[in-house]
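hiii, so i know i said id send this last week but things got crazy w the move. better late than never?? heres the sequnce for the chain we talked about at the cafe, plus the structure i predicted for it. fair warning i was half asleep when i ran it
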Amino acid sequence: MHPKDLNITDFQYELNPERIAQYPVEQRDNSKLVIASENIQQDFFYNIDQYIPSNSLMIFNDTKVIHARLEFKKTTGARIEIFLLNPTAPFTDMEQAFSSKEPQTWNCLVGNLKKWKGDSLLLEAKIKNESVELQANLVSLGNTSQQVKFSWSSTNITFAELIQHFGVIPLPPYMNRKAEADDLFRYQTVYANKMGSVAAPTAGLHFTEEVFKKLEEKNISKGFVTLDVGAGTFKPVSSAIIGEHEMHTETVYISLETIQKIKQYINNQKIIAVGTTTTRTLESMFWFANKLRKNPKADFFIDQWAPYDDANMGLSPFEALEILENHLISIDKSFLEGKTQLIIAPSYRFKFIDILITNFHQPSSTLLLLVAAFYGEKWKDVYDFALKNNFRFLSYGDSCLFIR
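okay and structure toks below
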């Protein structure tokens, strides 16, 4: 069956709001772990090394959550919340936007928009011993988001420094609370490196230096990719048929070093993806290689239905990695940058992933579709097991190790 024809009711389960973790466990690696292979069992995350094959490769998403929520208070007392999504001018690249000291426009979600009549919104503070004023102006209205221009009074302060000071960590909408001091640390992975996400790659929240040491003792290697997680990750499939759902688009970065490392492991050792965002990034690589094989000048944009509508011409995962490696060498670049709208749903055939580490996801979500594609119909048994054994769900919840 083509995934367009799947009914979303087949990917629902009863999730009591009380099972949604509002706070993380005290120690990251003390979260519970379901091990789903031929049988289903449970343990704690700090023992995950016992279930990972020696000499394998584990890939992480090293994106870093930005302080994407900005709250302004008008002189009338009205509060306007601006949620940063992505830069649109003069930069569309996150890193360029964050390092810039010049005015810039962002695509945003605006709360209490009716109260914003076009006047400038202002925030003031002292940053690096300098008084700085941040100004926000509404540029245009869209169907689902708005264009907002930001400017500030100092030429010594980057946009990253501004939002680090004025903004707050954007907790998911199902956490019915405001971000607290601990969230600044706990809603980031310990290896977060590249700013750009408005949501954490939550499968990685359980890792600690102690867990990494155990993995190293089994000769389990690490690799990193980057996917800037967008707000669309929380958007449930609202249509009855999955084919009517428009998947969100996110930016991905994959280094030549990571491609070469995966190439070393692809035919002989296991590759473990930490999270659905890592999985989508790795699988998108294959479809970009498929495009390059047909057209060496192809752009890196993967349509959500590309794997299902476009034949891969018998391309093997190893051949795909060679194409990507040669492409980067030919253009003298050290990393790939692209955009992916890839939706992974049942009938999808994975190219790079042998084992998946992930959290428990919302009913009717594209993240749950990915889990079902990877593990099959038995995903329901795993979720039933977790519900019956008091596992905690969603971003700050417990973890699951899927071994096919």
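btw The chain has two domains: 3-65+185-403, 69-166. thought thatd interest u
miss u guys!!
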